[in-house]
Specification:
about 325 residues, alpha/beta, seven-stranded mixed β-sheet, two-stranded antiparallel sheet, 11 helices, 9 strands, about 40% helix, globular
Length: about 325
């Protein structure tokens, strides 16, 4: 039986409905100068203004998650928090399926965020929402340094997030996962363009679609965040290939797949890698449907044994 199509954000997502700009600006006064009246009369911001969006994120993290310090360099991607939170909640459900239906929480759970970026957003949200521990890796030394500072400045999560530099851009797990470490899940938002030129073209098309002027373009991002040779499909193929080498150290490998047409080819590669399980999980935010693919080299019994051994002791 196929899973029902999602009709909105995950039920545990804190961000259903419109943002309460008054509450957010109360918790983060820096947001006040960016508030504007929407056509409906409520408060909003100009979402094409990078500074406004970055400040909105800071307010959301403060108000909903208790994060007192958050910012990113202007050249880095600014992550939309509702969608990032949704991915984590669906991963929590994935883990719950191996844990008698109960979402596991606390530091017994460790996630690995491949390509965490300067924002370190998945580890921050996962730590605040479920108390999970995280390994956060990136190939950009500047992003690693920034993410480390974010974690350091927020004492409530500092002990649970380890930010690590991946010094080999061809690898995702080697040099990051120690030989004596286990990871309960991998989370990843791959770069999906094949070149810098393709990334710029896509940004320009989006600019035109939104009716924005060139100086209002708000699609920042470092090169490694936006594109890689071969694009999303090649990135995921490399990830699947290397995941087999860590088959006994990780319960679930997962990655967002932005292009629906890439799903079939990635599923074939996963099957070829001798994974025991592969699932495609859809998510919805308004009219937008996104998805992530999840695979495990452990069968159902082995996964349940993993949960009993590591999460219930």
């Amino acid at each position: 039986m196929k899973a029902a199509k999602p009709k909105g954000l995950h039920p545990r997502n804190l961000h259903s409905g419109r943002y309460d700009m008054q509450q957010l600006s109360y918790r983060c006064p820096d947001l006040v100068p960016y508030l504007r009246k929407s056509p409906r009369g409520g408060d909003t911001i100009d979402f094409s203004d990078a500074d406004a969006v970055r400040t909105l994120n800071r307010a959301i993290l403060c108000h909903h998650y208790g994060i007192q310090y958050w910012d990113i360099p202007k050249e880095n991607l600014c992550p939309p928090i509702p969608g990032r939170a949704d991915y984590l909640h669906y991963i929590a459900d994935l883990l719950a399926a191996d844990n008698k239906g109960e979402v596991p929480s606390g530091k017994a759970i460790t996630g690995l965020d491949v390509g965490t970026g300067a924002s370190c957003i998945y580890p921050i949200l996962g730590s605040c929402s479920y108390g999970w521990q995280f390994i956060a890796s990136d190939i950009a030394a500047s992003s690693v340094a920034w993410a480390k500072e974010l974690v350091k400045q927020n004492r409530g999560i500092a002990s649970g997030i380890s930010v690590r530099l991946q010094n080999d851009s061809r690898k995702m797990f080697e040099n990051v996962i120690g030989s004596d470490e286990r990871v309960d899940f991998v989370i990843c938002n791959p770069p999906f363009h094949k070149s810098a030129r393709e990334a710029r073209s896509a940004a320009k098309q989006k600019q035109t679609k939104l009716g924005l002027e060139s100086d209002k373009l708000n699609f920042a991002g470092m090169a490694n965040e936006l594109w890689c040779k071969g694009g999303e499909e090649a990135f995921l193929a490399t990830m699947v290939k290397e995941s087999a080498e860590f088959s006994t150290q990780c319960l679930w490998f997962t990655a967002l797949v932005s292009k629906r047409e890439n799903v079939s080819s990635i599923k074939r590669l996963i099957k070829k890698s001798s994974a025991a399980e592969c699932r495609v999980i859809e998510m919805a935010q308004g009219q937008k449907i996104s998805r992530f693919i999840a695979w495990s080299y452990l069968n159902e019994k082995e996964r349940k044994d993993w949960a009993t051994q590591h999460w219930c002791s």
